[in-house]
Amino acid sequence: MKAVRPYVGEHDDEAAPGLPAPLPANERLLWRGSPDAWLLARRGFHFNKFALYFGVLIAWRLISTLADGGTLGLALATTLWTVPLAALTLGFIALLAGMVARTTIYTLTDRRLVMRVGIVLTVTFNLPLRRIETARLHALGGEAGDIALVLNPQDRIGYLHLWPHARPWHFARTEPMLRALPQAGTVASLLADALKQSLVTPVRTVVDRPAHEGQPAARDQRQRAGANAASPLANAA
Fold first, then answer.
1. Alpha carbon of residue 120 to chain centroid
2. φ and ψ of 218, to 5 deg
3. Does residue 117 contact residue 224 with C-beta atoms inside 8 Å?
4. In angstroms, rounded to a whole number, what is the distance separating the alpha carbons of residues 100 and 20?
5. Which of 186, 188, 185 is nearest to 196 (CA)?
6. pLDDT of 226 over the 50 cut
7. b/e string for 38-66 if b means 16 or more Cβ within 10 A?
8. Which of 105, 130, 218, 228 has its CA 20 to 30 A from that of 87?
9. What is the pLDDT of residues 175-186, one digit of tens each?
10. Dihedrals phi, psi of 104, to nearest 5 degrees
């Protein structure tokens, strides 16, 4: 009898949801979450605007046909072709938002922010808190909102690599963005506290011993951000 292999999902080998490796002993998890699919469809992919566009188009076709003396049956027939197109477009937007929300996990620790994104090709962005200059909350109504991150100018991530998890229309200096968070205000407070704490953590001075006696010692100050290097790192899964 042939053995049946158990199904192994794309992210089943993760140490924890959204993390490619276990957290170090000295790193603490503060928050983990994902975008809200319906909120992302409406505010990230402009579902409402497309729905309004098709509604206006259908109404205009009906009214213009009736105004030209056409019958109600003729008016309905002339607008019939727009209904499948509208359904296809809105269905695609809803499907895309659902897939993005299902495959995205944001993880905040006291050392870094991790963004696991990607539908076809999963990519993990490791953003040390010390490399984040500013975090901006963009309210979407109620507690919901987006959080944009301004990185150190030396750290650059391609806009297309991040999309749709990037602040719209900021191409020259891309800003990663946590999209469509239902409790964005709470997450923003946690992130603000973590950023403040990362600034007061003392800087460790590493002294390199000279290879030969009499050779001056080289001093190198390095800022530690958990297990991460100084710049954001994208790891393809």
1. 15
2. -100, 130
3. no
4. 19
5. 188
6. no
7. ebbbbbbbebeebeeebeeebeebbeebe
8. 105
9. 999 999 999 999
10. -105, 135
CB neighbour class for 145 (10 Å; exposed up to 12, middle 13-18, buried from 19): buried
Contact 149, 113 (CB under 8 A): yes
Mean pLDDT, residues 80-94: 93
> Taking 90 as the threshold, does the pLDDT of residue 224 lie above it?
no
| Identity of residue 237 | A
Q: Tokens 């001093």 identify what position?
A: 219
Taking the model in full, what pTM does it have?
A: 0.76
pLDDT at 219 over 50: no
- For residue 33, what is the DSSP state? E
Cα separation, 152 vs 131, whole angstroms? 5
First to last CA, the chain: 34
Residue 17 three-state SS: coil
The Cα–Cα gap between 98 and 109 comes to: 26
CA distances (Å), origin 48, targets 39, 81, 163, 169: 11, 20, 20, 20
The whole-number average pLDDT for the span 13-24 is 80
Please name the helix (run of DSSP H) or strand (run of DSSP E) that holds residue 72, with its range, or none.
helix 72-79
- What is the rounded CA–CA span in Å between residue 156 and residue 196? 22
The tokens for 10 are 């794309």
Look up residue 26 and give its two tokens.
């000295």
